[in-house]
Amino acid sequence: MNEQPPGSMRPLVVRCGAFGDMVLLTPLIRRLAERFQQPVDLVSSGPWTIPLLQGQPGVGRIHLLESRNTPYWLNFPKQRIARELRRNGPAPAWFCDGNGAAFDVLQKGGVPKDWVLDVRDLAFGAREHFVIRWSRFANMTPPGLSVAPSMSRDGMIGDGTSPVAVQAAVIDVLPAWRSDLSTWLESRGLGNTTLHLVQAGNKRTMRSGRRDRATNTKYWPEERWAEVVRHIRHRSPESSILLLGTPGESELNDDIIRLSATKNVHNAALDLPIPRLLALMESASSLVTVDSGPAHAAAAVGCPQVVLFGQADPELYRPWGAAGAQAECLTGTVDGQASMLGIGAGEVTAAWDALEKRARPSPAVGVAAH
C-alpha cells in the first residue's frame, strides 16, 4: 500500500459528461482538492468543460477527449493523455463514468488498478441525488492508497464507511466574465434593467425533425412559453426578458417571442458563450427553464428558478447549488406517465410568482464569488 501523504499527489478524475453533469461534479472536485491539498486534474470531453471549469477552485489540468468511444489505438487524444499521465507518475483516480469507454486512458496511463475508485463498482441509493453521490465518492479512498483522514466537519452524512460533508454545486463567476457581461449588456441597451431569463430549449431541440416529436421528452409547447413570457412582462413591466440557448435553439426562441407579442424580449441564443451565460445568470433576478444543464449552472451561481421536469426524477436531478437559491421543481403526467406536457402554464406562472427573486447587483460591485 502506498503511504504518500496528502499534498504529494494530484488526484485525477475521469468524467465525460454533459454540461449539467460537469456542474454537478464540482462538489467532488473541491472536496478532493481539500483532502489532498492539491489541484485535481480532469479527463473529460465536450467543448463546455474548459470554459466552465478552467480557473475554478480546485481544478488543475483539464485533458479533453474528442471521443471516448473510439478504440485506443485509433484515438490520438487518448494516447496523448496516457503519455502525459505516465510522464507525471501514478496518481489516485476517481472514475465517474457509468460507461467504461474512457477507462483505458487510466490503464495505458500507468495508473495502478488498486489506485482507482470506479463508480460502477459502488452501491449508491436508488434515488440518491448526484450532489450527495459525488460528496460520498470524494470521501472514499482507492484501496491501494493510504492517506491521512480527511477533516471532520459538522453536517455529516454516512456512506457506510466514513462520514462526508455534503457540498453542493458551485461555480465562481470570474471577474473577466462579469466585465464581458457588462460590456455586452450595455451594447444591447440592457445595462441598468432587471433581467429575467427563460431557457425553453434543450439538446434535443437542436436535432432534426419536429420539436414535439415523442423522443423530445423535454418539449413544452411554444404557446405555453409565450404565456409565461407575457406573465413575467405583466408582473415586471420595466424588466428585460432574455431567452437563452445555443444557436440551434435560436429559431425556437424567435417563435416564442413572436407568439408572446411582448416588448423588450430578447433572443440571446446566438451570442452566449458559457462564461457570459454564467455571469448573466449570476446577475439575473430569475430563470424559468426545462430540466437542463443551464438549470444546474443557475443554481451553482445562485439564480432563483422554476424548473420543468419531464421523465427525469427531481429527486436525482433537481438543481442543487451551494448559494442556496430557490429552485421550484414542477412535474406533470399524461395518461399516468411522467410528462412535461402535463404541466400547465398556470402552474409555471404561479411558481414564478412564489420565487424569492433577487435584486440585480450593481454593475460596479458585482456579486461576490461563492
From TrEMBL:
GO terms for biological process: lipopolysaccharide core region biosynthetic process. GO terms for cellular component: cytosol. Pfam families: Glyco_transf_9. Keywords: Glycosyltransferase, Transferase. SUPFAM superfamilies: UDP-Glycosyltransferase/glycogen phosphorylase (SSF53756). Its EC number is 2.4.-.-. This is Heptosyltransferase-2/heptosyltransferase-3. It comes from Povalibacter uvarum.
